[in-house]
Amino acid sequence: MIKRTYQIYRSKILWQWQLLALLSLLCLYTQELCAQEAVKIGGTVTDVNGSPIELATVRIEGTAIGTVTNLKGRYSLKFTSRDSVTVIFSMLGYQTRKRLLLKPKGNLRLNMTLTVTDYELGEVSVSGQRRQTGTVQQLDMADRSLAPDPSGGNIEALLATQAGVSNNNELSSQYNVRGGSFDENMVYVNGMEIYRPLLIRSGQQEGLSFVNPDMVENIAFSTGGFEARYGDKMSSVLDITYKRPQRLEGSATVSLLGASGYMGIAGRKFTWTHGLRYKTNRYLLGTLDTKGEYDPRFLDYQTYFSYRPNPKLEIGFIGNIAENRYQFRPEDRYTSFGTLNDIRQFKVYFEGQEKDLFRTFFGAGYATWHLRPHSSLSLRASAFRTQERETYDITGQYWLSSLDNESSTDQAETAGIGTYMEHARNYLTADVQSYSLEGRHRLNRHELQWGAELKHERIKDKMREWELRDSAGYSIPAGPDGPVLSYTLNSANRTDSHRYSFFVQDTYKHNASIGLLTLTAGVRGSYWDWNREFILSPRLSVGLIPAFNDRLTFRAAWGIYYQAPFYKEFRCTSEQDGISTVTLNSDIRSQRSMHYVIGGDYHFRALNRPFRFSAEVYYKDLDNLIPYNIDNVRIDYYGRNLAKGYATGLDMKLFGEFVPGTDSWISFSLMKTEEKILQPDNTTEGQIKATYGTWLPRPTDQRYRLSLYFTDYFPGSRKWKLSLTGTLAGGLPFGPPHQGREKAVFRTPPYRRVDIGMSRCLLDEADTSARRRFVRSIWLSLDVFNLLDIHNVNSYYWITDAQSNQYAIPNYLTSRQINLHLQIKF
Length: 826
Prior knowledge:
It is a single chain. This protein folds into 2 domains: 29-113, Immunoglobulin-like; 132-825, TonB-dependent receptor, beta-barrel domain (Maltoporin, Chain A, Beta Barrel). It is 6% helix and 59% strand. It is built from 4 helices and 47 strands. The protein has a 22-stranded antiparallel β-barrel. A 5-stranded mixed sheet has the order 9-14-15-12-13, with no helix packed on it. The termini are far apart.
């Protein structure tokens, strides 16, 4: 009986415990269901200017829940609530932002503002995955400061590795795009057009380019088919945006080529950046054939100030002072050239010196009113002034010798002996003032932009040059009054003119059944009172991300691009009694280029890493051309519209992470550009009629170019980094000086160059020591320029021997050289 009672009691207790446990589980489950109620968040993602960011990613951390913003930057997302939820906002090219929500409930509105990526972050983001639906591509400067570059890390060195771009002179920042000259490229910094000195004739004199890489935040670049908002040039656009720092930051760099310093200050309503650069090419110039005392000194200071007193108003200022001094006392030169069966040696002993000074000032201010969240109005004013002085008196006595494979230098047979003298006193002062008003408005799927600009140009130029070459068949026999000068130039000119321009363009985006369609159409008009010419340039581009495969992007562009002549283009040289005189041609007309561009991108993953392959085919119909010759980096124009031509080619680029966590690319271009020049033709009636001659290669006719930029880390360590750049390019046309384009029937040897650099991180963000409080990173680099020690030809010096044979003496570029480079970031 007792046992029976115990069993019944035990059963009741167990049942009660089971019931209690079941009720507890039900309560917990009910509580969990109550806690995990559905939450909906929505809002708008914008940039710092209030413009919406489309295709930005919004996701919940630790889950697969996410979405992307629409064309207006709006998003909507549903998820189950928890104690804490982290929402991540990201977009390539912008800094990733996170927002922590504690026990979110109901419907929430969460707006987010993304700032452009800080290019001083240690990691490299693959900007190639950003979709390019127009003709302007975004380039990433991240970690390019560690790349081996004789120019000191210029933006132009990055451009030279892009498809369709060429630069065959490591001492110069000039670059050519798709068969055009450097003068056909536009450069903007924060919407202001940038100018450069006009008298520079060699890369040794050039020094620093305007753009300070330490201050750059964003790089936009177009090789053709660009929008109407960009000005009147025929080849390319480089649009630079300077950074507005988010905190106190800075950097310092020192190398055998110079030094630079940067500091950025950020306040609650303002930002202020400063950049100071010093460069000297003395170390590099010591490898040239011409020995002597080189003293090149280039100094540049820039500042960018931005003030935002309220959300609707922003005021800014950019200032620049640059001074390039080039002094040179040549002593001697030894150059060997020719073939294996005909070896020649050129020896020169010099007297005299060259002194050049190029001093420029630039200042620009702007005010932007944000009238509504998607509407703004900007007023800009800028002033540029350049003071240039080029003076030299150099005398050289030379020996041209013929060697064979068995003879030594002392046994060389003299083929020619001569003396030459060069003299120049060139002075130029130029002032350019610009005033513009621009507006931007977003209406549903349309983004409307418009603008109007007034420019005032005042240029004063005085030139006096002459050359005497006392060698057989050149200045001998002498004239009745003495030796005949081979070249004489004497002129003095000044201009005072105004340019008026306007543009209107609309960008329309529509998510159609065939995919995401982007259409940009616009027109640009300009008037110049110097030649009383009005030009009108319609431009159109279309981009498509097809619905059947979102890894593809197609684009096409067409437009008419006029290049209104600047000072050098309308200087017309005429010769009378052996003296060349420069006059200004008021009948000059704008050169015209009609662009046809078709291309696309393919995004894919290989080895679990992102890649992008790009290709573009283009054709440019050229008319009203002003022919020119190139000597080193100096462009000498005919000063008249005498030619027509074309340029056509194919550009390809493979971009991606060849090594995980690094950006590398390889680009290949094929191109052909030719022109016909008007020639006088005597008719039977005795009249002179001009007809076009035969097709001639233009001075920038580089048939092929292969460029490589590669980065890598040592296995198991990211403190060691390797950077390599390589170029293989076809030769360019050239001919005797002062004899016209028709005589340029020769080609330079191919341009081949490899630069390599090894960098060691001495301190990075993972360091927890006390010094980490003040220093973000320290990198020490060892660079080897021209690793293969290839003697590339820059230009030619022409002489004549005793048999009146002309010889082109090659002027070689720099040889192999080692450079040390220390970079500190704060």
